[in-house]
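Meet the record:
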Amino acid sequence: MLWNVVKRVQEHYGRRLKAQDPEAVGLLAAGARETNALSLVGARIREAVCLTSSPRMGAGIGDVWMTPIVLPSGDVRAIFSSSDGTVLSDFTVPAKWSPERGELSAEDVVRAFRQLNQS
């Protein structure tokens, strides 16, 4: 829904959105893919971090942001995006311990990572 508003504003003004607020960037990243809708139910979106410029500085279209999202399972989805909300990449990191899996060994973490991120 948020993306529909963003697209309409961009079309109307003929300009691309460039968010600088970490919360706005995080919400745009989380909402960029419709496939995220069900997987993010009950998740907690944490503040996005601009990885390529100084904190609280203006962000450019070339900057890369990372939005961490804590899933109900305790796993963390990391979404990498640009300032305009374009998703560049994303993956899910398994928690060392979760109610579903219990405690994971180093080898189990690697297996869980591969399983969570297969396309």
